[in-house]
Amino acid sequence: MDVNSNKYTIGFSLVMVVIVALILAFASESLKPMQKKNVEREKMQNILQSVGLTVTRDDARENFNKFITEQIVLNEKGEKVDGLAFEIDILKEYKSGGQKNFPIFIYENNGAKKYIIPLVGKGLWGPIWGYIALNEDKNTIAGASFDHKTETPGLGAEINQGWFQAPFVGKKVFDESGTYQSVKVIKGGAKEGDLHGVDAISGGTITSKGVEEMLIRTLKTYEPYLKS
Amino acid sequence: MSESLFSKKNLKLIKDPLNDSNPITVQVLGICSALAITVKVETAFVMAVSVIAVTAGSNVIVSLLRNVIPSRIRIIVQLVIVASLVILVDQVLKAFVYDVSKQLSVFVGLIITNCIIMGRLEAFALANKPWASFMDGVGNGVGYGLILVIVAFFREIFGSGTLTLPGIGKIEILTSLAENTGYQHNGLMILPPMALITVGVYIWIQRSRNRKLIENH
Question: Which of A126, A209, B51, B80 is most buried, judging by how many CB atoms fall within 10 Å of its CB?
Fold first, then answer.
């Protein structure tokens, strides 16, 4: 048989494509449950991280079920609606045109209640995300955790470090008159006693601005619920 | 088959790429990924294993098909085979070593473009039997991985003061020195340029010990 004839070449490619497609589809389908489990456990880890609870990946599910007592889905007016909060991809919700749903996770430990809100935004090079935890007054920040995909190491990438996240604790989302303020990331450093500002990262201005924009935009969507 | 599986000739296929024809230090192939993922020993190790799996696997498959692949589309066929193997490796990493797969991020996908693999397919697998091709693939993969792990070893120790070994975890080597005596980790070691310099130093030492490799002008 002539290996270089047109007919053979086309036939060979067709058979090859079908075989490769079958193998890859099979591998993808059979490994999907394990991959999904990894992603889920990482999400649980991140959620718990925002209230200062560091757990290993293996313990993530157990601790999550123990401390996260309620998972609520809110609509844009801040009313509870049906749905699985954990399954919501908030990036899609912010982009989607129609009815939007926003998840909120409630953490409870020794009677202390904390509200955990997921965040998504844009850094300099790619997406940034995180979780912010509010105390029972739905105003004071109890903790924050941020992460990024491809921010510059040593500069913007520092947002996932403790020194950047720790100052958020104790800041307030609303001022005394109850007006929405969010928390600003201030270049050159926040003034002492500023309840609505934290230090930005030197050399990481655009990532810092990204964190600020993410907080302002995201917490705003939760304003009706936080005020209720 | 008259020749034994581990004859001198076959073993040479594995040994040569470790030293005399090392893909990184002698042929200078696959340098880009060697710079990017050698900050930690563990990531370098997983990358090395992934590349060994892909070079060995694709070499065997191409060698088995060498008489039926139409020569006009052989590069495309090779690419499809390599790409499928890389996707398989990526999926397996995501399922079993999720953290490492996150650190390797795009570099697993970029194994497809690693010149070592296509180079071995074109130069060896298309003209040799499956077993010899397998040995050649393993040899070149190990030769690549060896350099990766050696470079990562020095970069991690001097850059972060730790060693992250696969299966064992993080071992603190120089961190107590840094805490007690004012010794500073060399931050430059973590940046890509130092990988190039470390590879350069390796090439220098290798050539001073292996005179065959010195070109005569």
Answer: B51
B127-186 confidence digits (pLDDT tens): 999 999 999 999 999 999 999 999 999 998 888 888 888 877 788 888 777 778 878 788
Cα separation of B192 and B38, whole Å?
A: 9
- The pLDDT tens digits for A121-159 are 999 888 999 999 999 888 999 999 998 887 776 678 888
Going through chain A in order, the beta strands assigned E by DSSP cover 68-74, 80-81, 102-109, 112-122, 127-134, 141-148, 184-186, 197-199
CA distance B192 to chain A (A): 12
Whether residue B9 is contained in a domain is answered as no
Test B95 with A20 for CB contact under 8 angstroms: no
For chain A, give every domain's residue range: 68-227
- For B114, the domain range is 21-209
Give the gap in angstroms from C-alpha B91 to the nearest C-alpha of chain A. 7
Which of B79, B96, B98 should be substituted to probe chain A, the one whose Cβ sees the most A Cβ atoms within 10 Å?
Answer: B98
Using a CB-CB distance cutoff of 8 angstroms, which residues of chain B are in contact with residue A155? Answer: none
| Interatomic CA distance for residues B22 and B38, integer angstroms | 17
